[in-house]
Amino acid sequence: MMDLGRMDDLPAEYRAALAEQNLVPLWPSLRSVLPPGKPVPRTRATAWRYAGLRPLLMQAGELTPIEKAERRVLVLANPGHGLDKMQASSAIYLGMQLLMPGELAPSHRHTPNAVRMIVEGEGAYTTVDGEKCPMERGDLILTPTGLWHEHGHEGTEPVVWLDVLDLPLVYYMEASYVTEGAPQTVKRQGGERTYLHGGVVPSPVFTRGNRRYPMLRYPWRDVRAALVILAETEPAIEAVQMAYINPETGADCQNILGYSALMLRPGETLRLPVRSPAAVFHLIEGSAALTVDDSDFTLSPADTCCAPGFAQVVLRNASASEPAFLFIADESPLHKKLGVYEVRG
Ligand code: GTQ
Fold first, then answer.
1. Cα 291 from chain centre
2. For residues 333 and 255, is the Cβ–Cβ distance under 8 A?
3. How far is the CA of 95 from the centre of ligand 1 (A)?
4. Among the four 82, 159, 252, 262, which has the fewest Cβ within 10 Å?
5. Atom of ligand 1 nearest to the CA of 126
6. Which residues pair with 140 in a beta bridge?
7. CA 150 – ligand 1 centroid, Å
């Protein structure tokens, strides 16, 4: 590889003349923007422990009323990007949101896409585009770009969920903004039940194409059952993993980030393919050990961990008798659309 010149090889006067005209020499920075062989990620393998985070989130519930927060969220920030950047990876934002009984997080819509993975509590709901979606542990609820959403709570205990957004990417694109709105009128409930049975969708002649996001809630009860059935019917399958898709098109359920649920069979060790997108692992149930290149983590339920792209990730189920269930978010739809998706085996 050629040895390239450095900035201070150049005379100060010349550097000043360049800066004066908003010009920059490429060669001193060429290896930094085009590193050899593979990217040098800012994203650092990082775990956020629910046991550590929960008391601070509950404290936020006491310190800051919902009226002063709009969304009461602690952001899971990756130190590799700098905490103030509020990024888990280059494209993924993660936050833990708390809603107390009786509170309402008012209706708004924004350009970034969001999903919620419910962590604890009962009685809360999110209304998305007029559809009231109850929030139960392990459910995935979509709030795609541009759709109105508000969160309410009719129960008696705190409710917590993990927010996953493509905010860092949309912000970087200078395309991120929000619009505030009035409370929504509920038009629909239980829309996901339309898609409970595989192989059939509403007849395309009359209904297909009406709604870009036909399924907004993926109940954990159904996803968990699907994983257990897959493990039973395909015992030789490499990974017991189900993708959250748009049931009308079969495509990823959102445009930028991809979502899946993975069951680790008792005692299973799973070496994931080395791929270009960064990924986030959130433990729903059981216990799991996770290795990201040279870093080891042990995950308890509601713990969350991120891995940069091009990392070797190995998942292990520590239990010999019980399955473990993980929720995974990754940047693969984005990489595929941009044509930079890679699998290195
Ligand atoms: O619940 O709408 O974590 O707008 C960040 C931005 C949650 C939300 C976040 C948001 C929301």
1. 19
2. yes
3. 8
4. 82
5. 1
6. 117, 218
7. 10
Q: How far is the CA of 248 from the centre of ligand 1 (A)?
A: 26
Q: Identify residue 118 by its one-letter amino acid code.
A: I
Give the separation between CA 83 and CA 57, rounded to whole angstroms. Answer: 17
Residue 163 Cα to ligand 1 midpoint, Å, equals 7
Residues ≥6 apart with Cβ < 8 Å to 229: none
Give yes or no for residue 163 CB within 6 A of ligand 1: yes
Residue with CA closest to ligand 1 atom 10 = 71
For the stretch 13-54, pLDDT in tens is 999 999 999 999 999 999 999 999 999 999 999 999 999 999
Distance 263 CA to ligand 1 centre (A): 28
Q: How far apart are CA 99 and CA 108, in angstroms?
A: 16
pLDDT at 203: 84
- This prediction has a pTM of 0.97
Amino acid at 27: W
Cβ–ligand 1 distance for 150 under 6 Å, the answer no
Point out the ligand 1 atom lying closest to the alpha carbon of residue 149: 2
Q: Select from 97, 110, 176 the residue to mutate for testing ligand 1; criterion: most ligand atoms less than 8 Å from CB.
A: 97
- In terms of C-beta density within 10 A (0-12 exposed, 13-18 middle, 19 or more buried), how is residue 13 classed? exposed
CA distance 191 to 212: 14
Instruction: Out of 48, 73, 166, 171, give the residue to mutate to test ligand 1, the one with the largest number of ligand atoms within 8 Å of its CB.
Output: 73
Q: Which CATH superfamily is domain 49-185+216-344 in?
A: Jelly Rolls (2.60.120.10)
User: What is the separation, in whole angstroms, between the first and last Cα of the chain?
Assistant: 26
Coil, helix or strand for 147?
coil
Per DSSP bridges, beta strands 104-110 and 178-180 are antiparallel
Which pair of structure tokens corresponds to residue 230?
């897959």
Give the tens place of pLDDT for each residue, 131-146: 999 999 999 999 999 9
Query: In Å, how far from its chain's centre is CA 182?
Result: 27
DSSP letter at 331? Answer: S
